[in-house]
Amino acid sequence: MDNKQIARILRETAQLLEIDGAIIGRYRSYEKAAELIDGLPDSIEEMVKDPKKLKELPGIGDGMAAHLAEIVETGDYALRKKLLKKYPATLLDVLQLQSLGPKKVAFLWSNFKAGTVADVERIAKEGKLRDLPGFGEKSEQNILKAVEVFKKSSGRFHIDVAEDAAMAIVAHIKKAGKAVHDVTPAGSLRRGKETVGDLDLLVTLADGHTSQKHVDALAKHILEFPGIDQTLAHGENKVSFTLQNGLQVDVRLLEKENFGAALLYFTGSKEHNVTLRGRANDMGYTLNEYALATLKAEKRVAGRTEEEIYSKLKLDFIPPELRENAGEIAAAEHHKLPHLITLAGMKGDLQMHSTASDGKNSIEEMAEAARQLGHQYIAITDHSKAVTVANGLDEKRMAAHIKKIHAANDKRLGIRLLAGAEVDILKDGSLDYSDEILAQLEVVVCSVHSYFNLDRAEMTERMLAAIENPYTQIIAHPTGRLLLRRDPIDYDMEKILEACAKNGVAMECNSYPDRLDLKDVYLRMCKDRGVKVVISTDSHSAANLSFIRYGVTMARRGWLEKHDVINTLPTEQFLAALRPKPGAAKLRSVTSKKAAARR
Question: Among 166, 186, 252, 403, which residue has the least CB neighbours within 10 Å?
Answer without folding.
Answer: 403
